[in-house]
């Protein structure tokens, strides 16, 4: 390989592999959208297939991480992926917490879920020149219902959802936030599912219809069209009880942490998928 080709190969490698700092990793979002799509009602499934761009081939999962990829182009959207709550309180309140760093209200993941739900409710109004881009609204909503189920997306303010807490994941240097975005899922895939995300999705899918079937009904319940406040309150509680618990700067996280937390991650992924479907079903009737 000539030096020039080598440089290009190196550049491609670097560009492809820069980790994205916030949000479930690609697999987390893929899992949630894949769990959701088969649960859609006929009318919701039709709307989703209408709104997805042709190249997605009616696979919502393929575009579930789109909102992370446009963060740099749509700079305004960055604060919409998370909520900062007061340090160590372990509670969430919309009025108190749903704002961005400049204090602008409604700019957090719960506010974004409400906003894109409202936009999507205009679908099929017969007004084909909707003032909104409903394809983007669908992709944002599908992504944000995922993010709000990542416990550290409803984290403490001073550590930016554990983005400033350095730990070791087994022997690798990571920040705690990334452990919950990606490492727990990746380690589970490697250890239990032959490194095959499809097998993990199948297992979660089966659990939703068997051992979790009663609970899944309760996960769906929502007196409004969207219920992000319920999910955010569960999120900060899980962050305190499981993600932050027992971890400090420099902690080494290994099997003890992994094996006790992987059920929490599985539960949140399943809830995210069930609730994304239920929300889209309520929106599209
Ligand atoms: Zn995100």
TrEMBL record:
<dbReference type="GO" id="GO:0003676">
    <property type="term" value="F:nucleic acid binding"/>
</dbReference>
<dbReference type="InterPro" id="IPR003154">
    <property type="entry name" value="S1/P1nuclease"/>
</dbReference>
<keyword id="KW-0479">Metal-binding</keyword>
<keyword id="KW-0540">Nuclease</keyword>
<dbReference type="GO" id="GO:0004521">
    <property type="term" value="F:RNA endonuclease activity"/>
</dbReference>
<dbReference type="GO" id="GO:0006308">
    <property type="term" value="P:DNA catabolic process"/>
</dbReference>
<keyword id="KW-0325">Glycoprotein</keyword>
<keyword id="KW-0732">Signal</keyword>
<comment type="subunit">
    <text>Monomer.</text>
</comment>
<keyword id="KW-1015">Disulfide bond</keyword>
<dbReference type="InterPro" id="IPR008947">
    <property type="entry name" value="PLipase_C/P1_nuclease_dom_sf"/>
</dbReference>
<dbReference type="GO" id="GO:0000014">
    <property type="term" value="F:single-stranded DNA endodeoxyribonuclease activity"/>
</dbReference>
<comment type="similarity">
    <text>Belongs to the nuclease type I family.</text>
</comment>
<dbReference type="Pfam" id="PF02265">
    <property type="entry name" value="S1-P1_nuclease"/>
</dbReference>
<dbReference type="GO" id="GO:0046872">
    <property type="term" value="F:metal ion binding"/>
</dbReference>
<protein>
    <recommendedName>
        <fullName>Aspergillus nuclease S1</fullName>
        <ecNumber>3.1.30.1</ecNumber>
    </recommendedName>
</protein>
<keyword id="KW-0255">Endonuclease</keyword>
<feature type="signal peptide">
    <location>
        <begin position="1"/>
        <end position="23"/>
    </location>
</feature>
<keyword id="KW-0378">Hydrolase</keyword>
